[in-house]
Amino acid sequence: MALATVLLLTVSPALSEAPLSDAAVIRQNNVRQLILLNECMGCDLAGVTLNAAHLIGADLRYANLRFATLIDSNLEGADLTGADLTGANLTDAFLTHAILANAQLDGVNFSGAWLYQVDVSGADLNNIELTGAQVLDTPISVGGEEPLEEGVPLEPMMPFENTNPATPYEPLISPES
Fold first, then answer.
1. In this structure, which of 11, 76, 137, 153 has its CB flanked by the most CB atoms within 10 Å?
2. Which of 95, 107, 103 is CA-nearest to residue 124?
3. What is the reported pLDDT for 20?
4. Chain centre distance of CA 60
5. HSE-up of residue 69 (Cα within 13 Å, Cβ side)
6. How far from 96 is each of 32, 117, 135, CA to CA, in Å?
7. Dist. CA 136–CA 167, nearest whole Å
8. What are phi and psi of 68, to 5 degrees?
9. 111 CB-side CA count, 13 A
10. For residue 32, what is the enclosing H or E element?
11. Which is nearest to 76 in space by CA: 117, 122, 128, 136?
């Protein structure tokens, strides 16, 4: 109970601050709900800052997280099905086993993020930033080439050539090591 009180106080504005608009009050209450219950399905969280938030397994299905800042946040196993994360900043976020199916991810910054086994089926992935991101078992690819036809062998773009024929090619790691 004491932890919930502390969390509420850290999210609540000081009395001397300017009055909040109705939308800002709703977002603030949604942040409280997310922190206390780890769920906020369909909530308006547009533009909120949740840096280093522990949202493991959070239910954020169909939430509005447009331009939200989630730097260094842990979203392991979080369900963001159908969420709108347009322009969100997920730099260094941890997204192992997260569900981003049918999510709007236009312009999301995933720099330095960990995207391990993330479900992005049906997600809109235009203009995402992946600099330094670690992507494993997640169907995100860079580029716009057509998929290869089955049975067509791959041909290298630039065949390997030993530029100095006097020295034979030696692998850096020998098979015996």
1. 76
2. 103
3. 65
4. 13
5. 6
6. 24, 6, 10
7. 37
8. -75, 155
9. 10
10. helix 22-37
11. 117
